[in-house]
Amino acid sequence: MLDFRCAVIVAATLFPAGVVRAVEPAAADAASPAAGWNVLRTHAFLPADFDDEVFDRLWTVWPEPDRSTAEAATPLDRRKLMFEYYGLVPTPDDPECRGRPLGYISNGGDGWVMTCLACHGGSVAGQVIPGLGNSHYALQTLTEDVRLVKLQVKKRLTHMDLGSLKIPLNITNGTTNSVIFGVLLGALRRPDMSVDLSHPVLQVLDHDVDAPPYWNVKKKSGLYADGFAPNTHRPLMQFILIPSNTREKVYGWENDFRQIHAWIQSVESPRYPWEISEARAARGRTVFEANCSRCHGTYGPDARYEQKTIAINDIGTDRLRFDALTVEHRKWMQVGWMSRYGEDRVIIDPKGYVAPPLDGIWASAPYFHNGSVPTLWHVLHPQERPPVWKRTRDGYDQSRVGLEVTEYDDIPDDVVSPAHRRRYFKTTLPGKNAAGHNYPDDLTEDEKNDLLEYLKSL
After folding, report:
1. Is the pLDDT of residue 26 over 50?
2. Dihedral of alpha carbons 293, 294, 299, 305, sign
3. Where are the domains of the chain?
């Protein structure tokens, strides 16, 4: 945690006008989606978080009755239970969970290395979809259990084990504190990406966010909930900026991330797999185009989308994400290598959140930037959003279009294990408010029902 004001001062003094910057490698191969997918599935940009032995022992530190259930299971069934417990998604070609999950690859041996697909490789209704946000991922629970097992078997702790002692990785399963990961890792770098560990501690606002689907990236001019970062490959690299990855490594991996960005932009949204009423959807399209399209664009043969930012006081959704990234935080990207020293546009003072494209919206529950709303029906009924909800593993609510959930007034008193409490989304926690986006209040119930049908078709 570093004082970001100091980072900005360093940036201004190290790179005034006319100063020669570090020599960068020339652009390499043309970007290819196929090459990008191969990089994601084979190239380890980070150290391994744990190894096979540690993973195989994780169930032994589970709370009851989970531990006894795992102990009584066959080895293969136990492995499936472990994938489910930690929200790990099997690869499409390995539904039996015999190998590593979608978001982890080998370090060349028995180590498990996290990739982008840990958060951006999810499943809906049991269907694995690379590029969909992983709304199951229990990263904090996984890391806590890994650390405990490593201490038991006397294995070295790694950056995730140590970092999570001070920085929450997530409060609720399916969301992560990824924005602050990027802020803190970036604070360890000079503008040219060389490592600098000398800054004092920075105060940050930890908060969970929901991983958006990759298939909408191609339509956007800027990345992230507020659209402040340029839609290029370099900002994707901020999450590998651990100090052991030197500037030279980062520069050397740029073409790999150029390929990854090409793959991301090639991802297509999935089609709704169940029946859609054509008559209701047609009426819903009229409702949508009269009330929603000015922010979210239009769809079909003449589709159009222009990225628009909605003022924070207008949209009214939880503002902790908006407040957590200050002007000083954003300037780090503006003055440095991530934006080609300002050649790529960085918005340092956005006014609110981006109204995203809605392609494949049926598949990307939960909704809002913090993942606080479980179904599209709840999006359209602001007063009915539950204060606490818990999803099933693979259930899909076709009538309300989104996660199959049980609603609560609060987390039940008998749920005491931190691992179990993270399975409940509590909207009164910081950064998790489900209020806002009250525009549907202007619609009749029939209009909402027709609109819901149309949204399935996008």
Report:
1. no
2. negative
3. 4-11+31-456
